[in-house]
Design a protein that fits this description.
Function: Binds and transfers iron-sulfur (Fe-S) clusters to target apoproteins. Can hydrolyze ATP.
GO molecular function: 4 iron, 4 sulfur cluster binding; ATP binding; ATP hydrolysis activity; ATP-dependent FeS chaperone activity; metal ion binding
Strand content: 15-25%
Subunit structure: Homodimer.
Order of helices and strands: HEEHEHEHEHEEEEHEHEHEEEHEHHH
CATH topology of the largest domain: Rossmann fold
CATH superfamily of the largest domain: P-loop containing nucleotide triphosphate hydrolases
Protein name: Iron-sulfur cluster carrier protein
Number of domains: 2
Bound molecules: adenosine-5'-triphosphate, magnesium ion
InterPro entries: FSCA_dom_sf (IPR034904), MIP18-like (IPR002744), Mrp/NBP35_ATP-bd (IPR019591), NUBPL-like (IPR044304), P-loop_NTPase (IPR027417), YlxH/NBP35 (IPR033756)
Largest sheet: 8 strands, mixed
Distance between the termini: 74 Å
Length: about 400
């Protein structure tokens, strides 16, 4: 039986203050801060006989530190004068409590959310992917973006090809991002807002980062860049199925995949494989673009099938089979010197030669992507979407 008067009522029952003061000496074993400061003490109940019941919030259920925390709390409260027994119960923080904790750990600054990943977001996000490199993803991305912007839509492009960034040049975006407060303002060109790691590295310095840094860069591009209200966001991915593709799936799960391939058999096989990753990440494949689909002969009326034929159909069929949905071929873009030149001098062919076969094909694809009725799953707007945003 405890006899000390300090921290106890005249009858010997410990006070709430004394028990909480003891709890303030208990550090969370992982965060190394007092559990009282971390909002982890849910309740303290002191009975007249000196038995104390403490309920502690764990940050996550199944917290590996649960026994450690229970032990520390028990030991600390047991030392309070007048305490006859200690019972520790555990509860789990709600999402809101966890976010509050995370914010207080970051010094009161809440981590910026990715606006495009929020359930009510009205921005359509398309990630342009391919299996092989050099099939024209970046060319397709910038031309779709320029065509959509010319059509009056608010469009942004993230150059998510951190190592092989090429979008700013192709789009003619020479400006550097500026910083306002702690937001990054993206430069724009041809009516398209664009951000790229190339804007942050001096000269043509290569970026040598591993997965986590790539993920962080992409997260910043999506969350810390001030995009405003966008109708469309296009992500130009690096080739293949690497870290960035996985990060995109994690950061913007509602991003739909646009697969680019050439008509070539080998390219189609790899593109199909890249696209089928979307099945694992539960992302939707919006369609297939066949690029470099034949070249009009400059001397005759023939089309020269430089890369063969059938790649787009093959990928679309394969992906339809894998996903159990209809994945369409949205368009075929012929080989066109003007498309390549437009990429080299930052003047997209959809603007410089909109009626050329390549320009027209790209505009046709852009139109299909912007006029699709929006997937309203999970949104209750009570209205019917118009043709365009
Ligand atoms: N339809 C086309 N006609 C002519 N040239 C094209 C066409 N499509 C792409 N190109 C050219 O092919 C090259 C590769 O294109 P691009 O950089 O867009 O491909 P990518 O898939 O983004 O490549 P990477 O995998 O390296 O990122 C560029 O020089 C581009 O100008
Ligand atoms: Mg590219």
């Amino acid at each position: 039986m405890a006899t000390a008067l300090h921290g106890s009522t005249p009858t010997g029952t410990p006070t709430d203050d004394a028990v909480r003061a003891a709890l303030a000496t208990v550090d969370d074993p992982e965060i190394h801060k007092p559990i009282t400061e971390l909002g982890m003490v849910k309740s303290v109940d002191i009975a007249a006989d000196g038995s104390v019941a403490v309920t502690v919030y764990l940050t996550v259920s199944g917290c590996p530190m649960r026994d450690e925390i229970t032990g520390r709390v028990t030991a600390a409260v047991q030392g309070v004068a007048g305490v006859t027994s200690v019972r520790v119960s555990l509860d789990v923080m709600s999402d809101a409590q966890r976010q509050e904790l995370a914010a207080s750990l970051r010094g009161g600054q809440a981590e910026r959310e990715i606006p495009f990943a929020q359930p009510g977001s009205l921005t359509r996000v398309y990630a342009v992917a391919s299996g092989k490199g050099g099939v024209g993803k970046s060319s397709v991305t910038v031309n779709l973006a320029a065509a959509m912007a010319a059509d009056g839509l608010k469009v942004g492009v993230v150059d998510a090809d951190i190592y092989g960034h090429s979008v700013p040049r192709m789009l003619g975006a020479e400006g550097r991002p500026t910083q306002v407060e702690n937001m990054i303002m993206p430069p724009s060109a041809n009516g398209v807002k664009v951000i790229s790691i190339g804007m942050f590295t001096p000269g043509n310095a290569p970026v040598v980062w591993r997965g986590p840094m790539l993920h962080r860069a992409l997260q910043q591009f999506l969350a810390d860049v001030y995009w405003g209200d966008l109708d469309i966001l296009l992500l130009d991915l690096p080739p293949g199925t690497g870290d960035i593709a996985i990060s995109v799936a994690q950061l913007v799960p509602n991003a739909e995949i646009l697969v680019v391939t050439t008509p070539q058999q080998a390219a189609a096989e790899v593109a199909e494989r890249a696209g089928s990753i979307a099945v694992q990440t539960h992302q939707k494949i919006v369609g297939v673009v066949e690029n470099m689909a034949g070249m009009p002969c400059p001397h005759c009326d023939e089309i020269v099938e430089v890369f063969g034929t059938g790649g787009g159909d093959r990928v679309a069929e394969g992906l339809s089979r894998t996903t159990g949905t209809t994945v369409p071929v949205l368009g075929r873009i012929p080989i066109d010197v003007r498309l390549r030149e437009g990429g080299d001098d930052g003047n997209p062919v959809v603007l410089s030669a909109p009626e050329s076969p390549a320009g027209a094909a790209l505009r046709g694809i852009a139109a299909q992507l912007t006029t699709r009725s929006r997937g309203l799953a999970g949104m209750s707007l009570g209205i019917t979407p118009r043709n365009k945003f």
